[in-house]
Amino acid sequence: MGLNRICAAVLAAGVCLGGGVAGAETLNLKYSSWLPPTSWVNTDLLLPYFEDVKRVTDGRVVIEMLPKTVGAAAAQFDVVRDGLADVTLQIPGYTPGRFVTTELGELPFLETNSVEIIAPIFHRLFTEHLQPVGEYDEIKVLSMFLTSSGHAFNRQRPIEKMEDWAGLKLRSVGAGTTATLEAFGAVPVIKPSSEVFEMINTGALDGSLSGPENLVVSKLVDVMKYGTIIPGGLYHSPVSVIMNKGAWEKISAEDQAAIEAISGEVLAKVVGQGYDRADNAAMEEAKARGTIQIVDASPEFVAAMKERTAPLEAAWVERAKAAGLADPAGVLEQLRAEIAAAEAATN
Q1: CB-CB contact of 123 with 143 (8 Å)
Q2: Which Pfam families does this chain map to (predicted)?
Q3: Hey, which of 66, 185, 308, 342 would disulfide with 166, CB 3.0 to 4.6 Å?
Q4: Which of 105, 188, 194, 114 is nearest to 154 (CA)?
């Protein structure tokens, strides 16, 4: 994945830019990665994107990965806001209650397992409705997207009916998934995906809500015994690529435009394609190993889960209104409508 792929996505709009301010000095920016340097999210997505940033600015903006992460995964927003690093991958759900508007993406049953479809839609709605609320005013959001649909993996027992959730200690990714697990009778524990393997090995967790790609990324394929795939997913994790505001303001207007042309929805779609590929590859590996018993949730089980989680949408609507979002129910309706339209267009 390089500049050519990203440019191809936007060439018709004429937004692949290569020019800039002649003679401008190079701005060297530092990327703090809480994921391992070898994670496919780094090697296949973010590092090529940073290379594209360098190319479209003719080398005037250079983003390099630091040898070690700065701060914990949950602290990355503050790390970038305070200038301890310039760029990072931020997961709002790791700080429950702080970024209420983007909890929209954590709601269950958004009716698609295609990240390529949902990721750019979420960035568009974020820009149109969520960002103006102001929760992200302290930094520059380069792209806000959703990742893989979340399913249930554990090492204790199959999850095929509501009673099977009871008492399972499962990793949660944020406030939305915590509420979902509590509604099911499970015990949610909010932790970064990078800590799940160790916690399962020590017995601190029984399993995790997770996108399929994380089976490989976090080595969960080595410790999980059971998986339940849920149509539409129990959640999607909102994730953003963010930059220090002061660093962004040092970039010329022309180079800012060049960077934005390969960011936003464009980057979100490329990210979505990457997650879809990684999800498919992970499921193939899990099935090939034969160590995880994977089942699809039955229609009756899905209906029971939807009934149990129905109040969560109303609860998010109220929290989002209190946070300053004028019409949360309308935004959720728009999200589902755009997903449905995109799904229909692919069939």
Answers
A1: yes
A2: DctP (PF03480)
A3: 185
A4: 188
